[in-house]
């Protein structure tokens, strides 16, 4: 095992006794198994086909210490104010370096049948519900970094909606991270359990500063007919490595939308796993990748169609400038008895510089015979004739580039369900195109 | 107003297409440029609008005495040059209304006028759309996306009506139009004729000139102006075809 993985195990041993859930044997056991799985597999390398495009080398060469939970007040406030001004986050749960920050949060009034709290609090009040679902949506052996999160996460969000309950207002979950001086690792964790017919919309954001490893895991379990939309704004610091797993189990007739924007970080990898377990289950996946300078963004999806008439629709768009690299690996597997599956995926990249590149890998594994599966991928530049058309009407070159780039990105931005989030993303895209040489999303 | 002197141009690093064009267009005049395919008509229109794929190797073009060739396409546009495209470009994701407001406000800024807000602009746009007999629903559709040939050309003239150029260059605006669409487009252009606005009509066919009567007609062949005259020249071409001109041009 390489030294930093050794460091990580040492950090875990030092932390373990102080983490929440010591009173829950099942959780203790899960944490043990998870760290054992991580120790056995170590950090993924680019030799592993599924991690080929993720640039995680810095994780092997740097000792990232567990986040200590401090962040300058003005920095927290600046980030939160930015979201509030955009109309995002009237109701919010804020985590600073992985710890819940009640003074920055604004939770909805309690409603019967709706449990919205921290994982640490839920361990005390909803222990069996928590242990029934935490870590239940993915295999620790296949997801070593998610396993590391399971072993080391200090806290996180717990949402449980009883049957037919609706989260009245969209919730913003803000993960703020700060590395101060030394490299810091943060393990944000969310567990969202919606029983039959329940509905919720959440926006999950990541922002911070310094040399961070933000290693997030969101687990989603949807009962029959439940509907969940998750919007993810990955706006981590320019020096950050961001790794993320969003793992969903979708029951009969339920629908899960995962809409992710990869903007920040020096290097990011997000993996979305959707298990369509019940008949008529559906998922929509939207990915917006914006890269500049030497950023690398990897979006990997795995959609498993395991029941009748299940539906998946993936749209990914990448805008890449500078020397940035984007990757999309979209794997769709259709089980032998998942007849009438309808699976579509498309990935289009706009390369704004000759040094930017995009790697697209659609993978279809189809064992059923009565299915409709499609995929399409294109990489290209701004259309020269369209640019000239706009300029010939008096629109300056820089503005013409911005208009065309925004129009390109709009197809996927329009899939984000909340208007305020779409407006926010428009601002981010425009800002990035206007300041072509700047990576960070922060001004 | 527009002075073209000894203009030579080629496709960047390619063969020469314009081989010494001279043309003078006065204020308020309508000039037609006719000629067979490959004679250089569209190249001339493109050079005037600032298409980057063409390279001027000799000659000059001035607009009111200022060097037009030194300007970017957008600088030409805000100074009043308008190119009606032979093949208008489809731009998914940008609505006609947003595109035109952005363009008009660019032009207004350059003229030192205040920008129009969305409401003011909509009032103006609806009035202009009526002139072109365009359904208002066009305004909220993506620029030219899914438009028929005739709709695209009407949209070009609508843009001209909104931007109010001083020099409009209409590149084969009549191509691909049936007679009804041609009449609408011609009526739009005629409505925009004014003593302050010059028009260059680039066309292959005489029929457009039945509807928009030019002051002067020029015949281009082999990259050179081979003949200039009044309206009767168009009728002569109609009767005799371009073969007659080719003979005049000495087989160029």
Defining traits:
heterodimer, A: 443 residues, alpha/beta, 11-stranded mixed beta sheet, 10-stranded mixed beta sheet, 37% strand, disordered C terminus, B: 252 residues, Rossmann fold, 6-stranded mixed beta sheet, 4-stranded antiparallel beta sheet, 9 helices, 28% strand, globular
Distance between the termini of chain B: 30 Å
Q: What does the main sheet of chain B amount to?
A: 6 strands, mixed
Q: Give the % helix of chain B.
A: 25-40%
Q: What spatial order of strands do you see in the largest sheet of chain B?
A: 6-9-10-3-11-12
What assembly state would you assign to the polypeptide chains in this entry?
heterodimer
What form of chain A results from the Cα inertia axes? globular
Q: What is the total domain count of chain B?
A: 1
Fourth CATH level, the homologous superfamily of chain B: P-loop containing nucleotide triphosphate hydrolases
Indicate the CATH class of chain B.
Answer: Alpha Beta
Count of β-strands of chain B: 12
Radius of gyration of chain A: 21 Å
Question: Can you give a write-up of this model?
Answer:
Chain A has 443 residues and is an alpha/beta fold. Chain A has one domain (3-382). Chain A contains 10 helices and 21 strands. Chain A has helices spanning 3-16, 25-41, 57-61, 73-85, 119-125, 127-133, 144-152, 384-391, 397-413, 419-434, and strands at 65-66, 92-96, 99-100, 114-118, 157-161, 171-178, 184-186, 189-194, 199-209, 212-222, 227-235, 241-250, 255-262, 267-276, 282-291, 296-305, 311-320, 325-334, 342-351, 357-366, 372-380. In chain A, strands 1, 4, 5, 7, 8, 10, 12, 14, 16, 18 and 20 form an 11-stranded mixed sheet that branches. In chain A, strands 3-2-6-9-11-13-15-17-19-21 form a 10-stranded mixed sheet, with helices on one face. In chain A, β2 (92-96) and β3 (99-100) form a beta hairpin. The two termini of chain A are 40 Å apart. Helix content of chain B is 37%, strand content 28%. Chain B is built from 9 helices and 12 strands. In chain B, α5 runs parallel beside α6. The longest helix of chain B has 15 residues, at 96-110. The model of chain B has no long low-confidence stretch (mean pLDDT 91). The chains are: A alpha/beta (443), B alpha/beta (252). Chains A and B meet through α8 and α9 of A and α2, β7 and α3 of B.
């Amino acid at each position: 095992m390489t030294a930093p993985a050794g460091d990580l195990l040492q950090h875990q041993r030092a932390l373990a006794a102080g983490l929440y859930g010591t009173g829950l044997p099942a959780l203790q056991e899960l944490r043990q198994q998870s760290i054992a799985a991580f120790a056995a597999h170590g950090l993924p390398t680019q030799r592993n086909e599924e991690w080929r495009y993720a640039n995680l080398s810095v994780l092997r060469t740097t000792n990232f210490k567990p986040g200590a939970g401090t962040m300058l007040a003005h920095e927290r406030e600046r980030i939160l104010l930015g979201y509030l001004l955009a109309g995002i986050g009237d109701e919010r749960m804020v985590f600073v370096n992985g710890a819940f920050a009640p003074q920055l949060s604004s939770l909805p009034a309690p409603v019967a049948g709706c449990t919205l709290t921290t994982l640490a609090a839920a361990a005390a009040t909803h222990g069996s519900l928590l242990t029934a679902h935490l870590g239940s949506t993915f295999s620790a052996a296949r997801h070593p970094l998610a396993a590391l999160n399971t072993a080391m996460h200090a806290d996180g969000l717990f949402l449980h909606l009883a049957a037919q309950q609706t989260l009245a207002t969209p919730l913003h979950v803000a993960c703020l991270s700060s590395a101060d001086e030394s490299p810091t690792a943060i393990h944000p964790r969310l567990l969202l359990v919606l029983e039959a017919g329940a509905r919720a919309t959440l926006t999950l954001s990541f922002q911070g500063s310094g040399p961070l490893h933000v290693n997030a895991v969101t687990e989603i379990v949807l009962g029959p007919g439940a509907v969940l939309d998750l919007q993810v704004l990955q706006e981590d610091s320019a020096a950050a490595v961001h790794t993320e797993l969003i793992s969903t189990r979708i029951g009969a007739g339920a629908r899960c939308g995962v809409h992710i924007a990869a903007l920040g970080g020096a290097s990011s990898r997000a993996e979305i796993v959707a298990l369509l377990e019940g008949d008529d289950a559906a998922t929509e996946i939207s990915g917006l990748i914006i890269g500049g300078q030497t950023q690398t963004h990897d979006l990997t999806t795995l959609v498993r169609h395991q029941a009748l008439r299940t539906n998946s629709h993936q749209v990914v768009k990448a805008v890449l400038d500078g020397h940035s690299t984007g990757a999309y690996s979209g794997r769709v597997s259709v089980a032998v008895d998942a007849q009438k599956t309808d699976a579509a995926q498309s990935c289009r990249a706009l390369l704004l510089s000759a040094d930017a590149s995009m790697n697209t890998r659609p993978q279809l594994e189809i064992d059923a015979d009565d299915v409709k599966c499609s995929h399409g991928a294109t990489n290209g530049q701004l259309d020269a004739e369209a640019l000239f058309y706009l300029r010939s009407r008096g629109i300056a070159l820089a503005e013409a580039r911005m208009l065309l780039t925004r129009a390109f990105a709009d197809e996927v931005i329009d899939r984000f369900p909340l208007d305020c989030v779409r407006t926010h993303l428009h601002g981010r895209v425009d800002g990035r195109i206007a300041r072509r040489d700047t990576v960070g999303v922060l001004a | 107003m527009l002075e073209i002197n000894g203009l030579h141009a080629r496709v960047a690093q390619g063969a020469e297409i314009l081989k010494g064009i001279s043309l003078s267009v006065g204020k308020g005049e309508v000039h037609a440029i006719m000629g067979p395919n490959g004679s250089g008509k569209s190249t001339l229109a493109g050079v005037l609008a600032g298409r980057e794929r063409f390279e001027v190797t000799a000659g000059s073009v001035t607009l009111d005495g200022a060097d037009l060739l030194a300007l970017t396409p957008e600088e030409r546009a805000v100074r009043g040059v308008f190119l009606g495209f032979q093949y208008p470009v489809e731009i998914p994701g940008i609505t006609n209304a947003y595109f035109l407001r952005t363009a008009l406000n660019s032009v207004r800024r350059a003229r030192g006028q205040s920008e129009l807000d969305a409401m003011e602009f909509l009032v103006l746009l609806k009035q202009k759309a009526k002139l072109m007999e365009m359904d208002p629903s066009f305004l909220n559709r993506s620029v030219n996306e899914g438009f028929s040939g005739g709709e695209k050309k009407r949209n070009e003239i609508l843009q001209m009506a909104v931007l109010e150029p001083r020099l409009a260059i209409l590149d084969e605006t009549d191509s691909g139009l049936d007679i009804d669409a041609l009449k609408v487009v011609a009526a739009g252009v005629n409505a925009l004729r004014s003593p302050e606005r010059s028009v260059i009509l680039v066309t292959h066919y005489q029929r457009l000139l039945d509807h928009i009567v030019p002051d002067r007609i020029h015949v281009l062949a082999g990259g050179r102006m081979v003949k200039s005259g009044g309206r009767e020249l168009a009728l002569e071409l109609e009767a005799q075809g371009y073969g007659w001109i080719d003979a005049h041009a000495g087989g160029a």
